Amino acid sequence: MSFEKVKFIAFDLDGTLLDSVPDLAVAVDQTVQALGYDPIEEIQVRDWVGNGADVLIARGLSRSIHVDENLSSDEIKKAREMFDRFYSESGHKLSHLYPTVIDTLRQLQKRGYTMSLVTNKPSKFVPEIMEQHGITSFFTDIIGGEDFPKRKPDPIALNWLLEKHGFSADQMLMVGDSKNDILAAKNAGCFSFGLTYGYNHGESISDSNPDVVADQLSDLLEILPELA
């Protein structure tokens, strides 16, 4: 498959550029315990992230990827407020960039690619975390989970970016670790690059049929040439 037309790359954040689960897991655990539930382990949270904080905390209360239908909206709302406080207080000190991230972003920037970030993570946390890890300057746009009415896999954010920057769908590549990223790309009509190491609810990223399956971010440099 040829990616010679690609000029614009949209990146997911959690599970793609950043391993944020250690901090998320602590905040989820603090929340559920404060509400009288049993402790949660990090390995559980790794399968629950990717659909936004409301869904994450509902899964924590349910202790399952399948949200308990008996949970009330008021309980989820209360838990979400507590989670936000705990997550903010964490300072995101346990999160870290995956190997090859900085060098890959630097090389793609040098090659002339326009890059944006599209994450389902709560918008208010995204700028601080990106600054903390020194990656803000690589991106023309930073879109968080509340910046549009719908999150990935809905293509609304990708379509907005295409219109803003004047690119066609076949000029965009979506880079992510979950089926939400791959489905968002398919729904927008653009190419998709799926990473094997992130968070995908315990499923193989190959099951979502991305155009490329890769074990590390630097594999992007093998398929994307320098722009003229």
Textual characterization of the structure:
Specifically catalyzes the dephosphorylation of 2-phosphoglycolate. Is involved in the dissimilation of the intracellular 2-phosphoglycolate formed during the DNA repair of 3'-phosphoglycolate ends, a major class of DNA lesions induced by oxidative stress. The chain has helices at 21-34, 42-45, 53-62, 73-89, 101-110, 126-132, 156-165, 179-188, 220-223, and strands spanning 8-11, 18-19, 96-97, 114-118, 141-143, 172-176, 191-195, 212-214. Helix 6 links the parallel strand 4 (114-118) and strand 5 (141-143). The protein folds into 2 domains: 8-19 and 95-223, HAD superfamily/HAD-like (Rossmann fold, 3-Layer(aba) Sandwich), CATH 3.40.50.1000; 21-89, Putative phosphatase, domain 2 (DNA polymerase, domain 1, Orthogonal Bundle), CATH 1.10.150.240. Helix 1 (21-34) crosses helix 3 (53-62), helix 1 packs across helix 4 (73-89) and helix 3 packs across helix 4 (73-89). It has 228 residues and is of the alpha/beta class. Helix content is 38%, strand content 13%. The model has no long low-confidence stretch (mean pLDDT 96).
**Strand and helix order:** EEHHHHEHEHEHEHEEH
Give the CATH H-level superfamily of the largest domain.
Answer: HAD superfamily/HAD-like
CATH architectural grouping of the largest domain: 3-Layer(aba) Sandwich
User: In CATH terms, what is the fold-level topology of the largest domain?
Assistant: Rossmann fold
* Average pLDDT level: 96
Instruction: Provide the helix percentage.
Output: 25-40%
Shape: globular
Spatial extent as radius of gyration = 17 Å
Strand residue content = 5-15%
Strand order of the largest sheet: 5-4-1-6-7-8
CATH class of the largest domain: Alpha Beta
Question: How far apart are the first and last residues' alpha carbons, in Å?
Answer: 20 Å
Task: Tell me the domain tally.
Answer: 2
Largest sheet: 6 strands, parallel
Extended strand count: 8
List segments where confidence is low: pLDDT < 50 over at least 5 consecutive residues: none
Structural class: alpha/beta
Helix count equals 9
Organism: Vibrio algarum
EC number: 3.1.3.18
Pfam families: HAD_2
Function: Specifically catalyzes the dephosphorylation of 2-phosphoglycolate. Is involved in the dissimilation of the intracellular 2-phosphoglycolate formed during the DNA repair of 3'-phosphoglycolate ends, a major class of DNA lesions induced by oxidative stress.
